[in-house]
DNA sequence: GTTAGCACTCGACGAACGAGAGTGCTAACA
DNA sequence: TGTTAGCACTCTCGTTCGTCGAGTGCTAAC
């Protein structure tokens, strides 16, 4: 083995192969490259180079008389090249977001949907778990027919609500007094503490124990939900648009794998670099072997970080996806960071 | 044509064919029926009967040497028979619901998910549009860092909220005073009126016009959403479990058709009988030609009716689906009716 | 180092064919 | 008159075989 390096020309050829394959999903032959990309070289020359690249593990042949297909290693080289450069945030994506800024918790959902819609891939957003959430405000809003909406707001701005039954006698002023009392007593406490305190009260208190029970239940639910990373998925069946998944069994396996969110969470929660790209088997999720997962992190306050990602076939226009992700993570960071 | 009727034996045979076909999705031969169902008759006899049934339009042959497949007309006869009898509400389904009674608006979502999970088909819930919604209460809940959660509750118990920015000077008492004032002025008004009134105020009022604008925007959004029937879909990719959709193109067409909710809405909103079954082309949604849609209505108050439905291949265990739907509509009616 | 030429390989596609499933028809039977 | 056995017939499915074409690797010439 005299020459082990990937020289500039090999790199150009490899890039051409990748770009052609991303477009067509068909093995790329030497003639195609010679015609469409490296017009100054003949197909024979390209063949020699391709042969070298195959030996180095960057290309593979589905069978001997087919063209070449880029390997995971090739995508990796290509993507690393992209990540070296500046990732430019996609302006279209940013504009898309700007229109529908709704600073409630469901920005994450909106972001996932926007990303899935624009990239035509599957998008995921991971919101990290938040331990030790402290109650900031607690309010009962009157509703018709002896009901009330119980709202809990935490110091991080998380909101959760539920409808509870209350005595018909309580009018809106009474509910406000109760709210104020409860907020005074409970503000600054963790959800855990709130549950404990209310458990104690509820056993003593007679008539309006229902309210306290409702609060305890909501606090419990809120604590449970916030104690684990949550993953939001959008555009899951975009995958059906790609020939890689023209087999229903594969598509089903993919969709089922998406439902089991643990692995996805794991992948998304170890996110140090601004962008990460997991290609093929690197992702360690079976049923997603020929997928790539491109992710970007964003701050959500208190030093925690969430992540947003796009899942599609390894054959993916990484540059576009990266810039869309850049825009999404930027906007999410602005909305959800401190 | 001497005898035009479907006598009892023909009916039994037809039923056997349908039930076998529902299980296997394979054309049913005369031998199968003679062996598994009508053991006292020979296959030749069954063949004669099947031939008659085919002539009457109840059966079809994919090709001459295959077994028979029930036609839409056959399903129709079968289903009409079922609908004559009592539809027993599925106890498992009911129990499932009882566990997670959450009387907020997302019961509809929960119902759809439960139904999709238990039937393994696609489930839809339609909530009818509500015109002339009147505000019952309006409340600002303090949030950290100069924000507030604005909650609007209507006389029907519908809730919508959004986060708005407010002056940092406003503490929870101030917000309550504003809430009380606003509720006094606006309670009983329609969402339309609220928007008009606030538009007028906001132009005059200086500093806290933001709050009024926020309310007007939320009222507008709420009015827009409630002015049209909304459809909630769950388990859309359950369809991939059935051989009818082993072709990716078909599956994709189906999923795309689901996204366009107008036709679905139309189908679900004309719901007079307690149960309705649309089979095949009856449903008039292309891309769902070999589907059946089974629906049940439920009351949502004010004389309006919502509907819950299950969409799957025509080959469907109608009895089970009907009883699951019965349970779902019963529970939804109890939670959402007056 | 590059290129033209050529033999070779392998998958896709279509035709031919046998096996198997299921039918319709006829004739015999109760 | 209704039921059944028997049989010829039809059609699909899977297999095999041969052809076509795309694309390669190798060699020799530039």
CATH class of the largest domain in chain A: Alpha Beta
Largest interface: A-B, 38 and 38 residues
The tally of helices of chain A reads 12
CATH superfamily membership of the largest domain in chain A: GAF domain
Class derived from helix and strand content of chain A: alpha+beta
**What's the rounded overall pLDDT mean of chain A?**
88
Q: β content of chain A, as a range? A: 15-25%
Strand order of the largest sheet of chain A: 7-3-10-9-8
Poorly predicted sequence stretches spanning 5 or more consecutive residues of chain A: none
CATH architecture of the largest domain in chain A: 2-Layer Sandwich
Q: How many structural domains are formed by the residues of chain A?
A: 3
Largest sheet of chain A: 5 strands, antiparallel
What's the CATH topology label of the largest domain in chain A?
A: Beta-Lactamase
Shape of chain A: elongated
Rg on CA atoms of chain A, Å: 27 Å
Helix content of chain A: 40-55%
Oligomer: homodimer
Encode the helix/strand succession of chain A as letters. Answer: HHHEEHHHEEEEHHHEHHEEEH
List the helices and strands and how they pair.
2 copies of one chain form a homodimer.
Chain A: H1 8-24, H2 30-36, H3 43-55, E1 59-60, E2 69-70, H4 72-84, H5 91-99, H6 107-119, E3 122-127, E4 135-143, E5 147-154, E6 159-165, H7 172-186, H8 191-204, H9 209-226, E7 230-234, H10 248-259, H11 261-269, E8 275-279, E9 291-301, E10 304-313, H12 318-336
Antiparallel strand pairs in A: 1-2, 3-7, 3-10, 4-5, 5-6, 8-9, 9-10
Helix pairs in contact in A: 2-3, 5-12, 6-12, 8-9
Chain A binds a DNA duplex (30 and 30 nucleotides) through helix 3.
């Amino acid at each position: 083995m005299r020459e082990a390096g990937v020289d500039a020309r090999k790199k150009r050829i490899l890039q051409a192969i990748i770009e052609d394959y991303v477009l067509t999903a068909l093995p790329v032959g030497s003639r195609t490259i010679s015609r469409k990309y490296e017009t100054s070289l003949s197909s024979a020359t390209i063949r020699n180079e391709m042969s070298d690249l195959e030996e180095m593990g960057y290309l593979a042949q589905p069978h001997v008389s087919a063209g070449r297909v880029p390997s995971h290693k090739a995508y990796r080289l290509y993507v690393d090249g992209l990540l070296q450069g500046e990732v430019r945030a996609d302006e279209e994506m940013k504009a898309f977001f700007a229109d529908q800024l709704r600073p409630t918790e469901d920005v994450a959902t909106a972001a996932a949907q926007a990303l899935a819609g624009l990239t035509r891939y599957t998008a995921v957003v991971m919101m990290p778990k938040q331990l030790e959430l402290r109650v900031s405000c607690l309010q009962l809003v009157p509703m018709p027919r002896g009901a009330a909406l119980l709202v809990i707001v935490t110091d991080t701005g998380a909101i959760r609500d539920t409808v509870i039954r209350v005595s018909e006698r309580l009018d809106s002023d009474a509910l406000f007094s109760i709210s104020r009392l409860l907020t005074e007593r409970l503000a600054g406490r963790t959800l855990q503490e709130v549950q404990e305190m209310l458990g104690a009260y509820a056993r003593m208190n007679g008539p309006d124990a229902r309210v306290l029970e409702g609060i305890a239940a909501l606090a419990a639910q809120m604590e449970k939900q916030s104690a684990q990373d949550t993953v939001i998925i959008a555009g899951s069946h975009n995958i059906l648009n790609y020939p890689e998944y023209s087999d229903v069994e594969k598509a089903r396996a993919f969709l089922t794998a998406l439902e089991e969110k643990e692995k996805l969470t794991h992948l998304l929660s170890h996110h140090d670099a601004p962008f990460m790209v997991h290609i093929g088997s690197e992702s360690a999720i079976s049923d997603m072997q020929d997928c790539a997962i491109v992710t970007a992190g964003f701050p959500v306050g208190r030093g925690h970080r969430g992540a947003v990602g796009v899942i599609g076939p390894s054959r993916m226009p990484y540059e576009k996806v990266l810039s869309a992700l850049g825009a999404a993570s930027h906007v999410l960071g602005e909305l959800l960071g401190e």
